[in-house]
Amino acid sequence: MIRLENVTKVYKTSTRPALENVSVDVGKGEFVFVIGPSGSGKSTFLRLLLREEVPSKGKVYVSNYDVAKLPRRRVPRLRQTIGCVFQDFRLLTNKTVFENVAFALEVIGKPAHTIRKVVPEVLELVGLEGKSDRMPRELSGGEQQRVAIARAFVNRPLMLLADEPTGNLDPDTSQDIMLLLERINRTGTTVVMATHDQSIVDSMRRRVVELDFGRVIRDDARGVYGYDH
Ligand code: ADP
Ligand code: ADP
């Protein structure tokens, strides 16, 4: 599903690599945490998968795409196979919950009758049935993140990339969001989540890829955040 082969990324404005000789394979349906301190390369890792950046050296494969070689006109098709969730939710503030989720379907040309059917289904999946007509500002942080997850998942992407999705949430709400990501993972969707949330990583016991100064220093099948547990 995802393969990085000896990937090094050096940004133009920087001298030291953001990622250095990183090789990681993620299979279909896996759940992977990418952890490490701020600046260790987690976001760069995710941006390479989306072709928001290209590697300076090495190869990036996502599903069957050689990402760096993909012609520009095919990038939208790559991105349609990937759902994204961020720390700051990134909802459209002037649209309702329903419209935020529907928008993801409208931009890829889905017909109105499909949208009317599919949006309520996914809002139910994330536990927001009954909140369709709310504006994002009327929702709690956890609810806003659920809308963002619904929007990311409504196209049934092959994978979900989450960059610090619990970074703005309290611990209980964070646990609820993790249950939801687990539920999405159980549908067969590959989930890659960048985080520094130690308690979440420790409670989930999933695969952990740890970065430090752009290098993979650990890749454990059922990991915890630190070493001293
Ligand atoms: P993390 O997500 O773990 O905080 P990043 O991937 O954002 O790490 O950053 C890795 C390194 O690359 C950091 O040193 C950061 O300052 C640098 N960096 C990230 N994005 C850019 C960019 N667009 N241009 C230059 N340097 C960047
Ligand atoms: P996060 O770690 O929350 O994902 P970012 O990836 O946006 O945040 O940024 C991580 C680090 O990379 C920060 O230190 C930021 O200042 C630096 N950075 C991001 N974009 C650039 C850029 N265009 N040029 C230089 N540094 C950048």
Automatic annotation (TrEMBL):
Gene3D superfamilies: P-loop containing nucleotide triphosphate hydrolases. Keywords: ATP-binding, Cell cycle, Cell division, Cell membrane, Membrane, Nucleotide-binding. GO terms for molecular function: ATP binding. It is found in: Cell membrane. GO terms for biological process: cell division. It is a peripheral membrane protein. InterPro entries: AAA+_ATPase (IPR003593), ABC_transporter-like_ATP-bd (IPR003439), ABC_transporter-like_CS (IPR017871), ABC_transpr_LolD-like (IPR015854), Cell_div_FtsE (IPR005286), P-loop_NTPase (IPR027417). It comes from the Bacteria. PROSITE patterns: ABC_TRANSPORTER_1, ABC_TRANSPORTER_2. Residues 2-226 form the ABC transporter domain. NCBIfam families: FtsE. Homodimer. Forms a membrane-associated complex with FtsX. Part of the ABC transporter FtsEX involved in cellular division. Belongs to the ABC transporter superfamily. This is Cell division ATP-binding protein FtsE. It comes from Haloechinothrix salitolerans. The gene is ftsE.
